[in-house]
## 1
Amino acid sequence: MLATVLAEVAPFVRPHIDWHAVAPELTLLAVGAILTLIDIVWLERGRKLTSSLAGFGLLLPLIPIVTLAVSDSDTRVMFDGAYVIDDYSLVLKAMFLLTGYVVVLLSTNYIGEGDYWENEYYGLLVSSILGMVVMASSRDLISIFVALELLSIPAYMLATWRKRDVRSNEAGLKYYLMGVFASAIMLYGMSLVYGVAGSTLLTEINAALSEGGSSEAVVTLGIVFVVVGFAFKVSAFPFHTWSPDTYEGAPTPVTAFLAVGSKAAGFVALMSLVVVGFLGRDDVFGPLFWVLAAGSMTFGNVMALRQKNIIRLMAYSGVAQAGFMLAPLAVAGTGGTSADTSISAILTYLLIYAAMNLGAFAVIISVARKTETAELESYNGLFTTAPVLAVFMTLFLASLAGIPPLGGWFAKFSVFTALTNADTGAGYALAVVAAINAVVAFGYYGRLALRMWVEEPYLGDKAPIKVPVALGFALVLTAVITVAFGVYPPVATHFTDVTLVAGV
Amino acid sequence: MSEFLRSYLTVAIFGATGCLLVGAFVGLSALVRPTRPQAQKYLTYESGVDPVGTGWSQSNIRYYVFALLFVMFDVEAVFIFPWATRLEAYGYFGLVEMAIFIFILALGLFYAWRKGVLRWV
Amino acid sequence: MEAIVFFVSAAIILAGGLGVIVLRNPVHAALSLVATLFGVAVLFIDMEAYFLAAVQVIVYAGAIVVLFLFVIMLVGVDKAEDIYAEPIIKQRQFAALAAAGMLILVALVGVAFAGDVTGQPSNEDMTISRAIENPDGTTTPAETSNINQLAEALFTDYVFAFEITALLLTIAVVGAVVLARRPKGDLQPLPDVEPSWALRKPRAVTPTEATDPSAGDDADQDPDETTVDQAATDGAETDEAKA
């Protein structure tokens, strides 16, 4: 009986694995395993090593990424198209790895000096980055979901890393519950999409959805649920409610990580899903992204104006910035080159946003080392106590506000280009909303800058602020990238001028 | 009814018969036995140590780690089972993939062991 | 017959789901979740996916619910009456209203789109009991059991996701250990105000508090010194479990 069953079964065909293409992921996996092994073997004695090892380990996968970028074959496809390594994914992988490296720099002193589990911290951080790196290449519902969980679950734990602090517990719990809720909604959407398309591959989903003939209601609900699930992840209005509390309660380096890394990963998934999977259904996702983008920009900015705590201010300004990044997706499906332009615009924005936001958080962490508070008031007279930090902070704030010739200006410029390029009424309307919001943002960024330059020092304390080497290096690194991308935009466009549609 | 579900009909009939038999015997004994209720007879352990407090007591968090480890290896078994049904078909490729899978999971177990959460006293 | 099995198990699932949210005792709610998961397992059998059904019972109805129960017992069920408190006034009524609204919304969406809310059956060749064309031109015969197809998928297209799943499980264990272990050294009572590194909420800072000289001596602490301290407590670490 068994023999007859076995005889009927088709022979197993071993999948083709391009080892060069997955080298970055494998390297990162090995780094994570080594970090855990160090912890297993040496316990606390390995503590001194882990921080520098994690930083080094996050830079190591850049080597295969560079060799992949210069290699002859442009696009490498594995697993029937579920895993694609193209220019788009390589740029993103490099960005995630560098983000992770800067976060390690931000964490070194913070985690080293506090009463934290240091080994586990870096192990989880590396795992989360691995999830993002996998996300950049995933073109399949299952890969995307597994990558999302891999990047989220360590982040939930990192948010609650200050175990004895009630606020950190609140941060972790809120983030976890909201994240799981979003995952559930998204999974439901994915199952509906799979039910209609009969495949988890994004390319086949696109074919099936564009073809029509399937139930309108199911397709609509599926796309809306998937997008809403990721809207939670990128903290877009009205799904942003977790972000201010989580950002405030989490350890500040983790906040920087959430604000840059995990938000960017959400956008990467949205880009892949929308441009590769749902592109034929512009009628469904176009208006949805329009509302999300306009709402996020407006609400985020209005709320940021009222904040008295810098972390909460950064959280709401992050909601507003997410709105800017969502905007090009609203016009991605209008035909012509709009999909490619939108992708390039979002990618540019992500790169620049990562640099300037991490830089701002580096300043916040440096200042909090002395003042131990996140009150906006504690930035009063920063120029007197720490002139260099004040200059850096002003630079990052100006970039976030979008003042030329800094990176943030070019990021906003690319978004406007993408919106007007589509040449639709909705696109122009969204560009107007974005322009108004760009002006509103000056309100809170400018007020914070004024505090540093004009006001008397906080509590009359004029003692200088000592900045550790790791933090200082992170500041210089992010500042150089922020300025370089703004002063000479071709540096940015050289990397971000990619195409996602043709690559598959 | 499909062939597939018909085979499950046996299960249903068997289960129903079982319930019926147990019910019949318990019912029969209820009819013929004498009933003289006493408080002692209603204790959870009539002839053992007297139960103290309520059944809803707070448990130690260390149980949780054990439960989670159990779930982890439960899921591992779920993944190993499909592989084991056609072991020879996947050859060395399957073996290596499964070895990596188990190695990563074993890291978690070693970690828990080394951190002392498996030690009870 | 399939229809009867479907409706009976659907009723069990819905009743269980209702029980999860209606029952006041969290343990009863968790047990009613078992009924839901069991109903889903029966549905899987109805669709001839018996491996999935077995997994559903073993992992979900067995292990996951046990985990739920541990967490409930961890908090202590006797403290469960706290859920009667309403942090937001009339929140139950609002919740009921919102739920009803969602239902109406979903129904409206269904009606608006030509009425077929259940969708088309997925592609014919996806059905388990039919033959499948492999990408390389061969055909997997219809009789192949779905457990073998599952393994096939696991070792071909999804092999990467499969390995990452292992990493996810390991992360879960690391997380549980981190959360369940006590911090190093002696336990201080939970701070009323913030520990030195915490960033305060606006209302927490009053001028007297902010000028408190005791605040923030940790910041300038020599990193090396801290490490030495932690190495010293290292030995005490194995004793943690005794407490």
## 2
Amino acid sequence: MNKRVIIYILGWVLIVEGITMQIATITSLIYHEHEGLYFLITGAISAGLGTIAVKVKKPKNMVLYQKAGFAATALSWILLALVGALPLCISGEIPSYVDAFFEMSSGFSTTGATILTEVEHLSHTMLIWRSFSNWLGGMGVIVFLLALIPKLGGQQNIYLMRAESPGPIVGKAVPRMRNYAAMLYGIYIGLTVLELILLLCGGLGFFDAINTCFATAGTGGFGIRNENMAAYDTYYLQGVIASFLVLFGLNFSVYILLIARKFKQAFMMEELWVYLGVIVVSTVIITFNINHLYPTVHDSIHNSFFYVTSIISTAGFGIDDANRWPELSKAIILVLTFLGAMAGSTGGGFKVSRVIILFKEVKKEFALLVHPRNIKAVKLDGKTVDHNIMRSTSMYLVIYMGIFVGSFVLISIEGKDFLTSFTCVAACMNNTGPGLGEVGPVGNYAHFTIFSKCVLIFDMLAGRLEFLPMLLLFSPKAWKKA
Amino acid sequence: MDIVIVGCGKVGASIAVELNSAGHDIVVVDTNGSAVSRLADSIDAMGVEGNGATYEVLSEAGVSDADLVVAATARDEVNLYTCLMAKASGAKHTIARVRSPEYTDDLFRVKDLLGLSMSINPELTAAVEISRLLRFSGAIEIDAFSKGAIELIKVEIPEGSSACNRKLSDIDVLKGKVRIATVERGDEVYIPNGDFTILQGDRVTVVTKPETAIKFFKKMNINIGKSKDVMILGGGKISYYLAQRLIKTGANVKIIEQNAQRCEELSQKLPDAMIIHGDCMDQALLLSEGITHVDGVAALMDYDEENILISLYIKGVSKANIITKVNNQYFDSITDKLGLDCVINPKKLTGEYIARYIRAMQNSLGSNVETLYRLNENRIEALEFRAKNSSKLIAVPIEKLNLKDNLQIISIFRKGKIILPTGKDAIMPDDLVVVITKHKGLSDLDDIMSKR
């Protein structure tokens, strides 16, 4: 494994984090808070160490194979959360380092699970850093580096992209990786700014608006109010947020195709229609199911739509306590938690495209039962899905289930009720945030033991990177030279 | 530039690697999905799976905005059709790989009709390169200008050459038919003038017509070793093209081929060559056919391994100049160590050939550079310009031009004739002018004048 390249990439991660931390420092200057000092110091040290790693250990060749690419990405994310947690802990706002690490892991992995009971007690400095971690984690720090640094990862930089970008098939829409990464971030920033403008038009204060934008764009789910999104209590504001959740849950290649004026190709995507279809159907069912709880039909539709988009995009915003909803609605919410958004989006979860592929595989299997000699190609968007992709998708399901079962058993040790244990694991590994029961939209993760928190931290980071890169780190084989 | 490459085989891959490292944006297309992903993963390129001869796949690969489409699949017909379709879809330039001798000969008739910018024939390219090397076995590098009418030949001055320790102006250069363009000494490169003294061990680049070169080297006591008797092992396409060329220059060619039917074919097409039906790996056969006495051997069998092994064997028994065909580029580091005289990689050669063409094409956008070679490890550029009517240099004797330092006009190609200019000659409109220089980035003939 090319360890020097890994150190080089980690160095750049430190530099990027050190610099972006200064957003918090600037905020503290505006609001005359002293917490900015911790960010300034941590950022300076981080950027300094990063510069040393980049300059002193500059690798002779940038060749990077799959193994090293995956390991570098996994380590980058752990490092990101570890360093990001330092100011929170040092400043004393979240005294326990494990809690701070949990909060930042949740932030960068865009989970949005929090250990805070009173978010509003935090300083503005902390709040913006939490929200920003959602934003950076949404599109990913490695993609950011790929756009920033020429020749990062050499000719094989696709392995870095694959480790970070979600979905069963990760390719490029343009020849150069750097241009592609820059395009992704361009679209990402464009959509974020658009949402910011629309929220400001709705009369939201700038600080609230920018925090909400960061959390929406990354489909993270961090709010800066105790009541989360319920604090912005107009149809317009919550409608804008819900609509942008849908948009950020789209595969970004849809936007790239639209920009390239390849409308036919964009609208031919099966995943797009399944994703939108699931949103519509779920909203309709839940609307009928919860209609008696709300004064008007508008309210029911509004609540139902908001929560469906919030869960399927894996943001996990809340405007009402879903615990009081009927069982059918809760079941649908749970299913959506697992389903997640589209591949290549900023959302988490199992991904719609994987479900489509698995569904088609099952269909093929049934055809084989009836006609044992039947040979049938599985097609997606009119193209044959490679056997390798089908195999890896099936394997993904196995790994996904394995991690889920393992984490569930480990969380059960502390003896919480079934609903809480079950949904907290689901919410963390799918990067949604809130589950049901004690970890519902109005609850939080403060009451878990340190051990459970560590398990959930792993689930969040591993879930963001779709498990394989993180599992690779724990495989002794990966660290052998030959 | 945006370049689409259809076909991810060895040729397509080597073109992609070469062009990608030259900084172009590459999209690769192939019907074989795993070939696409293997190539697109190993270089920074985008891959598209599908039939590159169809409009749908080509447009997905972004052909309408592409500057160049290279069709390099295994089948000539597919390649030509792909180029036709690409041109119809809006590609600016197209290059097709056409390797069948029948088509290659006819191609000039339909080139314009098909809108082809260029056709490549890896086997022919390799044959040309091998025949050049066999012609001047002592040459380090040979580049051609003005449609092959003039060549730049790089040789090392050996001990006892009559050029040693003499000023350039003293060396009889066949009454101005030969020029010495550059001299490489140690790590330095010079563009010499008349006062420059040649030393033993200098690597000089000589500019001349191909036929004059032999005379010159003979006169200078430089043993350039023309191969008169050449044995070709294997009777594939390269062998055919090579034999054809060698026979034209008057060499005796002997081809050994294992397949009897192929032997028949070759003997029909090459009546002047001697065709032997037998196993090239059979050492007794090689000895009985006089492998110890030939001047040149080209090992051009299908398998790289066989070519390498037999070349090593021949090296032990014969003084012949041996050229070994190796297709697999991963063998490069191994063949280097084996001490083989000369290794030819046709696929890689094609990649470089196209890359050079594209470089010239890029140069010719907004400039009037026709050909560009980088010599002496990129420190010297040899550029070919077409003189325009509007140029300030027209009809001015060269001695009166205020040329830049480290720059020489080495040849003028006018109406099918080569002129190696002296101070009295002048450039006329429509001349092809070859300039050699240490300056980089000249884009117009007028750039050769000093600014002062």
